[in-house]
Each structure stands twice: as structure tokens, then as C-alpha cells.
Write a structure and sequence with these properties.
By secondary structure, the protein is mainly alpha-helical. Helices cover 49% and strands 6% of the residues.
């Protein structure tokens, strides 16, 4: 296991996650980032957000299964774009207000946009791992397809 080295509770990079990243991407995972761990909802998607009189969140059975700090942001963003990384990429490129919002969100994590592009596959792999056991085949397939897209291209 490798760990990030920042104050607070350090995020531990599981060896299995690193190996899965390398297998799926075909690229070595040589960069470790300084991230402070934070329990995640684990399924923070549009389908798990309700709005009646108040905004509310549900489907908490995966809460705390991961403390990777960008998991919920990534799963939310991907669900906004039906797990199509190319659609997210295009929107990011053409919508300045969205770019500003995302960069503000990333600032809370202390992560630059370019570092997020490098970290996004880890979050997608974690999301895929959580969804592989007992979740819809459609979500698993969409997440797998997003991983196969070139995530580095969407930042250009």
C-alpha cells in the first residue's frame, strides 16, 4: 500500500486499486497525490438525490466503504452526463460557469484540475468496484465504458 503524506487522516492507496488502474488504463500509476481521506456516500448520483420541500439524499448502504475524497464528486459529475466522459468534456470546454464551479469544488479538496484529470480514473474504478456487487448491469457497463475513454483528452 502507498499513502499520501498530508496532515490529518491520510488516504491509503490500496494495492488492488493501483493494479486495477494499471490493468484498465494500460498505464503505470506512478503518481500519488496528497489527499486527506473523507468518508464518501459511495453512490452519489442524480438518482439518489430528491427534492420535494427540501433537498435530500438517500441510498446510504455504501456510505463509508470508501474514503477516497473525490469519489462522490466524480460519480455525481458522471451521472449528470449519463456516464459519458465525452459529454462531460464538451460541457467543460464550452461552459465557463461550469469550469469555474468545478475548479471551486476541486479547491476544497486542494486538487488542481489537471490533478483531478489524473485522479478521475481512480474514482471511477472505486465506483465500479462498489457497483459490481448487486447493482444494475447498465451502471457497471456505463462506468466501464467511461474508464475506457481517454480521460486525459477531455482536459484539453
Amino acid at each position: 500500500k502507498a499513502s499520501s503524506a498530508q496532515g490529518g487522516h491520510r488516504y491509503i492507496w490500496p494495492e488492488a486499486l493501483t493494479l486495477r488502474y494499471e490493468a484498465l488504463s494500460g498505464k503505470p500509476s506512478t503518481e500519488m497525490f496528497n489527499l486527506v481521506s473523507c468518508p464518501q456516500h459511495g453512490d452519489f448520483t442524480l438518482t439518489n438525490i430528491g427534492l420535494e420541500k427540501h433537498l435530500w439524499f438517500f441510498d446510504w448502504e455504501d456510505f463509508g466503504k470508501s474514503d477516497f475524497p473525490l469519489l462522490d464528486l466524480t460519480s455525481f459529475l458522471m451521472s449528470l452526463f449519463n456516464f459519458k466522459l465525452s459529454a462531460l468534456s464538451e460541457y467543460f470546454k464550452t461552459q465557463a460557469s461550469f469550469r469555474q464551479w468545478l475548479q471551486t469544488c476541486l479547491g476544497f479538496y486542494g486538487v488542481s484540475f489537471m490533478d483531478y484529470v489524473k485522479l478521475m480514473p481512480y474514482a471511477l474504478i472505486l465506483f465500479l468496484e462498489l457497483k459490481t456487487c448487486g447493482y444494475s448491469t447498465e451502471v457497471v457497463l456505463k462506468t466501464s465504458q467511461a474508464l475506457k475513454e481517454s480521460w486525459m483528452d477531455w482536459s484539453r
